């Protein structure tokens, strides 16, 4: 049976359907894009850089497509007298050559200056009235190990931090390299065997944020995720006290098994850990 819709209406409905599908895909079925929802000062600076880059590139795109449309209309073949005014030979045109050389240089400079400024600004901890804390992070096959040197406690596959307090993460790896990333709190940094790389992050308020490994590290890579629980300072102190009083200490044998065992580990909590646990297993992995 022939459709009652005209070809024009069918094309309109097809375009509308495709637009709806595209919008659904771009929206992620209602899920938010984490990097576009900063929840800390580090993430906010990086978000501002993303916005600036997007605005600049959008401006460039608008100008390019505007010029493209202008040329199509002005030099169309059907325009009366176009044969007499159109000259495709622009070789040796100094003004045009300077223009299309200078403009890309200016665009690169406009992107480079804020990028370099933001990169160097994030090397230092965010401004805060609170003293920063340190968390030592180790990626292993396939788990995340978090040690709190000042509190001398350890967690596996989850992280607790105080809100409004800068956190310095010292990152290393036992086994393959990976990437430590909490998108809503800031950018990522590598974890590599035998190296200690630093990263500053901070959460503005209490909440739960998803962290993940962003560097393919084997068959367990998909499970290299962890939750970051941001609590008030009082709640964080209470959590530390609870860990110290109710959870077991980590023995050296257990620590060795934890970092060497190539398998998934459940969420774990320890009231203390051997001081040389990670360093010793790093040296063992590297054959030192």
TrEMBL record:
Cellular component aspect of the GO annotation: plasma membrane
Pfam families: COX2 (PF00116), COX2_TM (PF02790)
Cytochrome oxidase subunit II transmembrane region profile domain ranges (all copies): 27-126
Compartment annotation: Cell membrane
Membrane topology: Multi-pass membrane protein
Record-annotated membrane-spanning stretches: 47-73, 94-113
Listed GO biological process terms: ATP synthesis coupled electron transport
Domain Cytochrome oxidase subunit II copper A binding: 130-242
Gene3D superfamilies, sorted: 1.10.287.90, Cupredoxins - blue copper proteins
Family (UniProt): Belongs to the cytochrome c oxidase subunit 2 family.
Function, in words: Subunits I and II form the functional core of the enzyme complex. Electrons originating in cytochrome c are transferred via heme a and Cu(A) to the binuclear center formed by heme a3 and Cu(B).
Full protein name: Cytochrome aa3 subunit 2
Record organism: Sulfoacidibacillus ferrooxidans
